Amino acid sequence: MSSQESDDAGKLAVLGVSAMDERLYRLLLNAPSSTLTELIAGTDIGAARARLAVRRLERFGLINRRPGTPARYLPAPPDVAVGALIAQHHDELERARLTAECLVDDFHRGTRYEHASQVVELIEGRAAVNQRAVQLMQSAEQEVLILDKPPYVGAQDNPDEMAALARGVRWRAIYSTESLTEPGQLAAVTAFRDAGEQARLSPLVPTKLAIVDRRLALLPLNSDGPAESGVLVHPSSMLSLMITYFESVWERSILFDQHLHGGQAPARSEQQVLQLLSAGLKDEAIARQLGISLRTTRRWIAQVMATRGVTTRFQLGLVIAGELGGVTP
After folding, report:
1. Is there a contact between 277 and 310 (Cβ–Cβ < 8 Å)?
2. E strands in 92-189
3. CB-based contacts of 58: which residues, under 8 Å, 6+ apart?
4. pLDDT tens across 83-129, in order?
5. With 0-12 CB in 10 A as exposed, 13-18 as middle and 19+ as buried, what is 269?
6. Angstrom distance (rounded) from CA 216 to CA 132
């Protein structure tokens, strides 16, 4: 058996074919019409184990026995035989999925009138919270709604979001305005936008929140530090309230401008300043996001105020609210 064949052995384990069974099948592919003795000659596979393996391979449809004595074996074409196994497992997985849906229905019927702990599930420990968040993101089928705010722990690339977007999940995120002051956050949000995320900014983000397919919501118990514990909210009036709050903030938030790259002189400076001002950023934060000096930022703000005919920040806020208030989803 070559080193490449040795490395590849076991690749069919996901279909229920053991590494030894696969090894015999590979040997037969290279020596069709072999007897059992010929097949295992020069290997460390005993005759008794080989006979059992051959029976399993016949049952899987991977080999066929030729008539006669001694018995000789022929390998089934891999594309046909392995393809049939894949189709069979796909059917089994689909049946398991349907069974899981029935179990969920049974679960909800059984807990409908139970204690509130059946609606709000407490998750303790940062690792447990992170694990449940990953499970939720990976199970998303239609839509994910996110409220996002600092502090952040670990990498901000979020491969689970990228995978969800790639499989067609609609992903809407509202970022707190303070999140744009975090190092690397602007680049991360821009990357998500480029991948298909719908992103907006708002000063009205009180805590992190993830709602998946409008059936489950996960949020931390504390809003100011890393999530040491959290709650998973199942279908209930509480979940409906969270969804309503998200949609309300979404309607009042502003579009995230994916062209706000630092280090470049922006071509739409006035519109960018308006967006960041309406998001509630201070002059220093606006300067960092636009990659310009604080002095230049204040000069642009003064120009915006002059073109709008206002003399105070409050008046400018009223003008901005009128100009950016009609944001469509």
Report:
1. no
2. 120-124, 143-148, 170-176
3. 64, 65
4. 888 888 787 878 877 787 777 666 665 555 445 556 888 888 888 88
5. middle
6. 11
Phi-psi group of 234: left, alpha or beta (phi > 0 → left; psi -120 to 50 → alpha; rest → beta): beta
| Digit-coded pLDDT (tens) for 194-233 | 899 999 888 788 889 999 999 999 998 876 656 688 899 9
Q: What is the pTM of this model?
A: 0.53
Kindly state the helix (H) or strand (E) to which residue 39 belongs, with its residue range: helix 36-40
159-166 and 126-139 helices, crossing angle to 10°: 10
Reference 192, options 144, 249, 242; nearest CA is 144
Question: Cα 29 to the chain's mean position, in Å?
Answer: 40
| Cβ-based neighbours of 327, under 8 Å, separated by 6 or more | 200, 251, 253, 254, 255
Distance CA 29, CA 74 (A): 8
CA distance 107 to 3: 50
